[in-house]
Give the backbone structure.
Amino acid sequence: MAKKQKKETLEDLIPDAELRDRIVKHLYSKEPLLKEGSVFSELLQAMVNKMLEGEVSDFLEEERSSGQMNKRNGYTEKQVLSSVGPLSISTPRDRNGDFEPELIEKRQRELSSGLDEHILALYAQGNSVEDVRRLLAKLYGISISAGKISAITDKVLPEIQAWRSRSLRRLYAVIYLDAVCFNVRNGGKYSSRAFYTVYGIDAEGQRDLLGLYISENEGASHWGLVLEDLKERGVEDVLIFCTDDLTGFSEAISEVYPLSVIQKCIVHKVRSSTRFVDDKDVKSLRKDLRTVYTALNREAAQTAMEAFKVSWGGKYGRLVDSWEADWEELMAFMDYPKELRRMIYTTNPVEALHRIIRKLIKGKAAWVSDTALIKQIYLSLMYNEKSWKRSAFGWKAIQRELVDIYGERFSRHLMEA
């Protein structure tokens, strides 16, 4: 009969009575296991130093085996940041200066622990640097300075620059242009910044964010610079631009992309048109306007507009004049099949992107700089790209229609994919 093995006790597992008592006490305290100064932090620190000792011993053994005269030469003391707080590390030195530790390299100031990723993820959810610092202390029991957190988030800046200057597709079927405003604190004063978003659909129906830009205010002149940037990054042609009702916008687009169709956002137009309409008239007037932009074709839309003019032109003449002045760009979507009409008559797709941004950073009064603003928005979008980077619904049918309408101008770009 096989002899029953004796179960290993806690004393067998941890012979050091003092250490054993401290571990038990800490576990029963219900405090975070890896908080700064805990017994587990000390164990990690001791383990790291022992592993470095093992590395230098192996290195010197190899040196002696190859006939090299080398030996220990003291230690270099340094503080290393980790997810359990700062660790006091003693890196062994050799006399010849050839030893290169692997666990924590000579100039390394952080023990790889995923801490950077935790900080970036928290920052991407709209938390300020101080919020991140407090959350790390609460969740992990570690104290990290605001400066260190800022330095970690700054590591993404080269990535942002590379992303903003990356090459783009030669053709986009649809590009949505819109801006949203945020406050930036500069010199103790708050100032508004226009955050420009360029959101496109390529020939294969893939949605993508093409660029993020910041300016002191939204204006057609700055949009011209944005369009020039797209051109420099490889965008040769755009079939349809969807924009809001900004003055001078159409001229800026036509100067850079003269062949593009411009579709002004119907939703923006209705909203701006009814701003000064009497409350008692708003519901009826909007209902009549709806018959215009939901008409079967341009001819039916024109007839509906004439009827609208008869009903409301006397009281709201400027509203009618505004629609007639922008008629071609408001009704451009009528020249396309229904599947594409629903996609281009409004800039709602890019506004949906803005809603994601606002939701992530709601409650934040202002940013300390333009760099901080774009850094946080970029991280927010990249950490949530599944919500906006996806294929356009029903694109195969739209693709066939675009081939019929544009011929080789569109079809030759299908080979890019």
